[in-house]
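#onboarding

Welcome to the new folks! Below is a worked example of what a typical request in this channel looks like: someone posts a single protein sequence, and someone else replies with the predicted structure as tokens. Don't worry about understanding the tokens yet, we'll cover that in week two.

Example request:
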Amino acid sequence: MCLWIINYQAGQTVYQSIIQLFGYDSIYHEFIQVNQKYQWPITQGLFKIYIELIPGENQIHLSTTISELTFVLFYYPTKTNNNISLRLVYISFCDDTNNNIEQFCKQFFFLTKLVRCTLDEILSKQTDFQRSLLFQIEKQIHHVSMLRKDFQEKLTDNDIFKEIYRQIYTMDFAQDLSIKLVINSSISPSLAFASTFKNLIVLNLPEHFRHLPSSFDEFYENLMTQNVNSLFYLIGAYLHELGHVFGLDHGNNQNETIMSSSKGYVDDGKDFFLVTPRFCSIQFNRQCSCYKV
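Example response:
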């Protein structure tokens, strides 16, 4: 057999609708095809594949020019109440009439599902953590409107973050500190930043982030366009800040972890989302590509 899936077993039950498969091709092809529809790159024999599942039985067919692998996974949504809730909040100005709130919320929710399955793989590899049981994503997204005048003299990302933080914690839905809050903000169209304090993450996204995917097919198409660096930035920033909100600091290894403060978010997103030459170097030299907890 030329194709191996390393992180899942045939017949396994999974608990989220999007998963990341990590595998190996001993022939070192350039691409691998999934269910005769999605094509993913192979780098130095390694590949990462994202798959969207439907409830129940899912047959997965992988193929290269000379190799095939077919197996079944079972998807059942998580129903436990013991894991932590991730509450999503979208912020805009009251007088911003150009916002397509429903579309932005769909993009935000889909991005969170992508990031969750990527974080699951990091935790599973490093700590034998059981996938999908760290947190669940609330299906309702809260939309909050703020006044433009409150931000007129806030010129830095730190000032904007503090003002968002101050206003959010006056609202009823933010009073339960056991719930992690992730905020997608369009408050400052000239600044892109990600910050965390206590149980709150703020991702401030300028105008050019508004073409992010809201479905799996859009996500796959996005990977083939010039917009992909915006997606990688968000994935890297989101993963990094989730690490903070769950208690991780920047650590000592400033080159090879998702908690690195010296790397850019775009590189973080690429390393943990796809197989890159740098990722291969880490794997083949048995270095840690995640954060040990």
